[in-house]
Structure formats: structure tokens, C-alpha cells
Amino acid sequence: MPSPRYTREIPSRYRLEAGRCKGCGKVNYPARLICPSCRGEEIEKLNLSPQGTVITSTVIHVPPADFLMEAPYAMAVVETPEGARFMTQVVDCEPSTVLPGMEVSLEFRLIRKEGKSGILCYGHKAVPVA
Amino acid sequence: MREVAIIGAGMTRFGELWNQSLRQMFVEAAAEALNDAGADRIDSMYVGCMSGGQFTGQEHLGPLMADQFGMAGVASVHVESACASGGVALRQAFIEVASGMSDLVLAVGIEKMTDGADVTNVLATAADQELEVYYGVTFPGLYAMIARAHMQAYGTTEEDLAWVSVKNHRHGAKNEKAQFPSEFTVEQVMSSSMVAEPLRLLHCSPVSDGAAAVLLCPLDQAKDYTDKPVKIVGSSLATGSLALADREDPAFLDSVQKSGEGAYKMAGVGPRDIQVAEVHDCFSIAEICCIEALGFVERGKGGPAAREGFTAIGGCIPVNTSGGLKAKGHPVGATGVAQAIEIFRQLRGEAGARQVENARLGLAQNMGGSGASSVVHIFQGV
Q1: For B327-338, how does the pLDDT look when each residue is reduced to its tens digit (9 = 90+)?
Q2: Within an 8 Å CB–CB cutoff, is residue A115 touching chain B?
Q3: Distance between CA atoms of residues B248 and B268, nearest Å
Q4: Is B330 a residue of the active site?
Q5: ipTM
Q6: Residues B103-141 pLDDT 10s
Q7: Whose CA is closest to B173, among B344, B350, B352, B302?
Q8: Strand B230-239 versus strand B373-381 pairing type
Q9: pTM above 0.95, yes or no
Q10: Interface of B with A in 103-162 (CB under 8 A)
Q11: How far apart are CA B300 and CA B310, in angstroms?
Q12: Is B83 among the catalytic positions?
């Protein structure tokens, strides 16, 4: 991944920065310039709580080349208490136990490596709440 | 707006066509469509292709294909909407003829997936790169999450999913153009290798090469070319969120519903009037979601449709008589046009062993990504 692009995406990936529409209250992660619900343009920043609930999930058995060593791994759409939803891996557990309704916390982790000499890419992964 | 008809069709066999290049497949399908109509010229053409650039390193397909087809000089442009590229090419051709801008317009869908590209990564470019692919999800993974949401909400079972594949392979076994014209049992589907839980290999459409072409003209000129034109009576394209996480209900495909409603309205018909349909079964769960969004069954009731024979040939609404993407193959850009050809054959009574009796009104639905774009056409035999 080219460094300018990676740098641009750091606020949302590192700090879970989202946007809340001042018009209708919809929370989007990451923040958008225009609210997809009401087309409002006044968006305030907010940081998401590092926790959420699994909405739907899968276990990837045939992964992309960059994730070959990790398969099988669980992925889920997670919803935070603020109502933001996003895609993430669910780790530190048996992948098949990740099902809708599971409570997770979000932890800052290494997501991927860009080849042998590329940059290390970080973000959040979900971990089941014990 | 003028009334528009399909007057000719041509397609390659779908499969791993090692000996055929992107341009050769294009010319084979396009030439067959013109010959079928007895036409020797076109005014313009649309090339639907998801990613010639990534699969084969070739962009600028509009002029390349016009040149290869011996038609250098005509207007020709590449259109893209991921796996809905073919359906969108057909829609652009329809709009151009309907508007009166051109009389003879060719719509061609094409894809060359087996020339060595990393297919998983190329297909994933149709998902959200920043929000989905970054974290390691694949296309089967996205549809697996749709499947799990559907199972959670409506009690759909893995056996329901398997029946979609079994049914479509039964249909595809009767199609000489199909990549896998062979039948499978429920047990074989349910014991095939896991790709992304709960989806197994035999829930997934294959990686394919192929091309498909249709020639369009105004209905009032169609009799110059064929005794059996097929009218396009409805055409609608709709979009939805690219990322699955941005959808209120991950088990429902809003873009499919919107595109269906648009096409029904334009045609002045409803789902109960449709006698044969091709829908975008890139994964078994996709057919279940699409027949719900198109109104063939109630929301949440798509699971048992294949198992109960509702969507089989001989059932209430035969779906994917061609074998669908599952058995016929899914050269992504070609799929939307190939679906239209199946309906064209059905409405002309030329579908052979898979003919639906007395089919007069047919529908084709082609989808991009995990449902971010959907295009629906409704056809009527003349």
C-alpha cells in the first residue's frame, strides 16, 4: 500500500475516529463528507468505544495471498455502542465460536504486512469478551 | 422513447478456455450475434468487462474490440460495474437505441479470468478496499456473512443453500455451453471443501472465461432481421452501499429490490407475471436473496424455494434454467449478457431440453460486488 494512502487512513484505523451527522445523528465509520442517511454536511468527529457486538460472521478458509498464514480466521461485522458498524477479524479464540450476538472488545493490532519489504499495516481486531 | 428488441445473440462456451484470448472470445461471440441477425454493420457497441486491466493487463477495450471486429471507426466504449458489467452494457445499448441516437447497437460482455491473475484479489477490488479487503475478507467471505445473517434471521439451513446448487446443476446439465454440465447430490454439495463458513466450494460459482453478445435495434425495424425478435420492456439499474457493514439488514439486497421495482414499473408488470428468470447466483445464498428482493417469494422465504421445486423447471417460477452462474460458469463481465441470451432463447422457444413451456415474459438480474449494484431487464416474446 502506498504510504500517502496509508497515512491518510490512520485516524480512523488507529483511533477509531468516526463521524456523527449533526442533522440526523447517524454515526458513520470512518467519517464521511456527506451523511448517507440525510445528505447533511455538518459532521462532527467522535471516537468509537473499543467494544461491540457481532452482527454477522464467517470463517475464511480460502484466504487472500497476504493472509495465507492466518487461515482459518474469523471475520465479522461488528456494531459499536454508538451504532457504527465495520468489518474486522475476530481473534484469540476458536474461529468457529464467533457467531452473531457475541460481545467483543476492539484491540489495536497488526493487520497485514505489505510483502517482504513493505510497510506494516495496523488497525483494530476484535477479541471476545471473556 | 422507441421500443427496442434483441434481434441476434451469440456466445462462446463458458469454461477454462486456455486457447482463446480476450479478443478472440469477443470476436467469436460478436460475429455470431451479427450472423444470427443477418446484419453486416453496427452503429455502436458497448463492451462490458469487469477488469481486463487486472485480469490480462489490457484496458481501452472499446477501440481494441471494435478494431479486432473489423469495425474500427464505430463508437465503442468499455463499461464497468464489477460482475454487473454485462448487464450494464446491455442497458447502455438499450438506452442508445431507445433514445433514437443509433439503430444497430451491439452489447457484449466478456471476461478472461484464467490467464494467471490472482483471481481472489482481482475480484476483491469490487468490494470496499479500505473497509473490507484491508482486513482480509474475500468475496466468498462477504456472501458467507450474508448467508449467516439470513440463517440467523429466517432459519435458512445449509441444506437450503445446497439445494440451490443442486437445482442449478440439474438445469446446467442440459446446457451445452455450460462449464460444468454435471449433476451433484445434496450430500456432495454439503461435503465439499469449506471456503468461507457456511459456504462450501459447491456453493460458489467457478472461475471462467467467456463472451456473450446481443444485437439490438428499434422494434419497428426488427422484422428486417428476424421473425422472432424479443422486446426489452423494462430496464433498471440501482446502487446500494459498497460495504456490507453499511447496510441496515445484511441479509437483504436493497439494490436488487430497487432495480426490480424500476423494471417492473417500466414494463407495467409484477413478479407474478414473470414465467422464467435468470438471477445472479454467484453464491447459492445470492439466489435466495435475489428471488426475495425481486418479489418471487416473500422476504425471508427464499430458503426452501429450490428444495421445494418452486424455482426448478416445471415449478412456479423457473430460475436459472441455463444452470445459472453456478453451473454455466461466471466469466464476470460476460454473465449479464449471457443471462439475457438465456431469456432470449426461452422466449423464442429455442431452449431445447430446458425449455419452459409457453414462456412469454422473462427477467434477467445481474449484480455487482456483494450487491452494491444490480441491473434488471424484463423481456417479452413478440
Answers
A1: 999 999 999 999
A2: no
A3: 29
A4: yes
A5: 0.96
A6: 999 999 999 999 989 999 999 999 999 999 999 999 999
A7: B352
A8: antiparallel
A9: yes
A10: 118, 120-121, 124, 130-138, 140-141, 144-146, 148-149, 152
A11: 15
A12: yes
